[in-house]
Write a structure and sequence with these properties.
alpha+beta, eight-stranded mixed beta sheet, binds flavin-adenine dinucleotide, two-stranded antiparallel ribbon
Length: about 625
Amino acid sequence: MSLRPTVDFLLHDWLNVGSLQQRERFADHSRETFDAVLDTCERIAREKYAPFNRLVDTQEPHFDGERVILPQATHDAQRAYAESGMLSAAQDYGVGGMQLPYTVEAAANAFFAMASVSIGSGMLTTGNANLLMAHGTELQKQVFALNEFSGRFSGTMCLSEPQAGSSLSDVATRAVPDGEGFEADPLGPRYRLKGNKMWISAGEHELTENIIHLVLAKIPGPDGKLPPGVKGISLFIVPKKLVGTDGQLTGARNDVALAGLNHKCGWRGTTNTLLNFGEGKYPVASPGSTQAEAGAIGYRVGQPGEGLRCMFHMMNEARIGVGMAATMLGMAGYHASLDYARNRPQGRPVGPGGKDPAQPQIRIIEHADVKRMLLAQKSYCEGALALELYCARLVDEQHTGGPQAADEARLLLEVLTPIAKSWPSEWCLEANSLAIQVHGGYGYTRDFPVEQYWRDNRLNMIHEGTHGIQAMDLLARKVLMENGRGLQLLAGRINATIERAIQVPELAVHANALGQALAQVGAATKAAWATGNPTDALANAVPYLQAFGHTVLAWIWLDVALTAQAAPDSPARTGRLAATRFFFHYELPKIGAWLQVVSSRDQTCAALPEEAF
Ligand SMILES: Cc1cc2nc3c(=O)[nH]c(=O)nc-3n(C[C@H](O)[C@H](O)[C@H](O)COP(=O)(O)OP(=O)(O)OC[C@H]3O[C@@H](n4cnc5c(N)ncnc54)[C@H](O)[C@@H]3O)c2cc1C
């Protein structure tokens, strides 16, 4: 079974991505160029990623005292990815990019996430370089970003610390100006950094010539104290090996040391590290000095105190990327369990006269409960893929649409991004659990791939803002911002789909159900905030996120069904309409229970004293 027909249907039939070719930026593109990118990525994913997914899980990265060793397959896969040009796919022609719409880039990257999410396809490197293209100086772009786009260097994002995960305001890494002339360094104002960064993905390896860390740190005030809150956070480029203005390595190692590798539940193909910055393991001399000293050399990006703002600039795309990874892990499990269910004989049908043991066994896909588990996976994963591509299309609208369309896309993304990140993280993980269930005992062994998909996927509710933090972001900020205009815009889009679907006899009942769900979410949003007290409102932020997410997914499915319904009869059409029906019959009704505790501002959990647990 191939993912490609689903991707093609969503991109072309549903989202009409070809219309983007009318925009100046994408004028050189055509269906052929989009197809060529998808063909290349599908091929590399099939040849260089999928066959090694289990290998990178069992041969975890290890440190030999000097280097972090990764399997040769990871080197080969990442080289093939870099050579495909995908690292700079969205960039201008002038810097070697393809000016590819983000929607197509996201779809192309889906093949890698499905084949082997843990080998990694450069999401961090691209995100790091894109950030520098937006906020770096010309030289920072030339020296760091362009070498990342070519695959010569790779990138990391260093936000978290052992004591500061969700609460980034407590970041304690210090950055002090490096000498008198610190501001005159051509690579950017030069600082010395000291601190520990925890959980840094791809923080140490030999896959590339250099690793470019983007590090959040605080610049102490005149009293030597670090400024409180997130407004005191600045952003720095800290290369593992120092680089000259010509982009060549100077031969000096920067003072960034691997303190240890984290041994993870899943996603084991990518190293995860605790990094010590500036502890003196690799003392380094400032330019013009012969005196090597402790302190990692870092070049400031943007103004002091603007670090988090710069980081968050790339957040929508990073979160769509996480949502897409979660989706594709779910999809991998769905395809594997579908294949298994078609081949595994077990049990006999129960007719009016009971079972007939003389009859041969049937295949498990013939049992209603197995079909339920398969259809649940299909509705979660194909629905989530549609949502991610819809959000990616909004990113293109924000970047290349007219002023009003771009502004609407921006606001819609504000509201939809927590869903794009969190919904697949929860429900495509549930899909992975169902894929194990379809396999029975075999699913619980390492002889089949589905347990690894579940382990790999379990990360996604934790990183890029935990589930709980995303839920609070949605209810405390996103649905309220700009006087609730984002929520109103979303409601407008949902209502437009309802109006179309109500005309279609097969879909009218779903359209009505969606209308009621939307009204329930609106009422619950008001009820949650009725006392104006965040403690009341946010006590049930996660059930709110779940109900909001299910309503969004019901809308996405109804919109997809409108396109599917207009197509000639085929098994794919039947499947899409059945997945829509499944979502409306089995999933959407769940929002009642979730919204009940939100609307009544239920304090059962929030008010329970610690001793009572
Ligand atoms: C495999 C992996 C890769 C990662 N890669 C990177 C990376 O490359 N770069 C990077 O900077 N970080 C990375 N992270 C870190 C990740 O972003 C953090 O783990 C995450 O932000 C949560 O922080 P924490 O682990 O300290 O948990 P905590 O913040 O301690 O949270 C623990 C629990 O408490 C809840 N909680 C915390 N605060 C609140 C609150 N105010 N209200 C309600 N609930 C709350 C959380 O929702 C969570 O359930 C990675 C993590 C992992 C596991």
